[in-house]
Design a protein that fits this description.
Blueprint: H1 30-37, H2 44-47, H3 78-85, E1 91-93, E2 100-102, E3 105-110, E4 116-121, H4 135-146, H5 149-152, E5 164-165, E6 168-169, E7 171-176, E8 179-183, H6 191-195, H7 208-211, H8 222-228, H9 234-242
Antiparallel strand pairs: 1-2, 3-4, 4-8, 5-6, 7-8
Helix pairs in contact: 8-9
Length: 273
């Protein structure tokens, strides 16, 4: 599986301004450089989006390899895992936790009353299997999961205040391959702050090209496919691919599920603490 990295920057300007990485030199991780040399992986220049964002280290550049130990004391600590190893939201908090900055989205535009948020995605960004990440993936999340009553029970947090205002759900529309609009029935000035939370990454965790085979709205044979795999319904099979609410979307799931995260997780996720 291709190993793609999404790079981030500490942006010192307003949230809605996009910072372009120009004239930057990207270094290949040693273990990936070996794969590039063997022709198993494209060079880093071909794996990065056209306008990647660059991390500005607070203290110093880290070292490749090693072991990262993170402790979890109770269920309330679970967001820490999202924040450390799977924090690939459309927007995110900067390293100092003082402002929300672009992430997967290269820029965000609000209308005058904060009822519409238009996100422009990074051109050329890819899932871990090499497929392009586009607006179709976000629309797939909205139509196939968020708006699907037979699946949303597995992801109750999708029905929380992040995507609702005064009880009314968000609507999502694709304008082009790199542009999506999130619309709300009432002004929602805190949406970007909420979207930058550890649980605000769901719109970018459902790769359409991989998951549509297991969804009945996209594959009329999804139910039969689920039965062949030993599941009672296509919903159960779909959930086995992406993880359920207890496991966290994408964390207790099919290891072949394409991700935008930097790591592939081993499926061990604490259900009780």
């Amino acid at each position: 599986m291709w190993q793609y990295r999404i790079l981030f920057v500490l942006i010192f300007s307003f949230i809605l301004l996009e910072t372009q990485a120009q004239g930057s030199i990207f270094n290949e991780a040693p273990m990936l450089a070996e794969q590039v040399a063997r022709g198993e992986l494209p060079p880093i220049e071909e794996r990065l989006p056209i306008n990647p964002v660059i991390i500005q280290p607070i203290e110093s550049i880290g070292q490749y390899g090693g072991i990262w130990s993170v402790g979890i004391k109770r269920e309330g600590d679970n967001p820490g895992i999202f924040r450390h190893i799977g924090y690939e939201n459309l927007v995110r908090w900067d390293p100092t936790w003082t402002r929300v900055i672009p992430n997967i989205a290269s820029s965000v535009t609000l209308n005058a009353d904060a009822t519409e948020y238009t996100f422009t995605l990074r051109q050329g960004m890819r899932w871990s299997d090499g497929a392009l990440f586009t607006a179709d993936d976000i629309v797939f999340w909205y139509e196939a999961v968020f708006s699907n009553e037979s699946l949303v029970q597995n992801y109750s947090r999708l029905r929380n205040n992040i995507y609702f205002i005064h009880g009314n759900p968000v609507t999502v529309e694709k304008l082009d391959d790199l542009t999506v609009v999130f619309r709300f029935a009432s002004p929602y000035g805190l949406f970007l702050r909420n979207l930058a939370s550890p649980y605000g990454g769901d719109p970018s965790r459902f790769p359409r090209h991989y998951l549509q085979e297991f969804h009945s709205s996209y594959n009329p044979n999804a139910e039969a496919l689920a039965h062949e795999a030993g599941f009672q319904s296509w919903q159960e099979f779909f959930v086995s691919k992406v993880g359920d609410e207890a496991g966290g979307v994408g964390y207790e799931a099919d290891p072949n599920l394409p991700r935008l995260d930097a790591w592939i997780h081993n499926g061990l996720w604490p259900r009780t603490c």
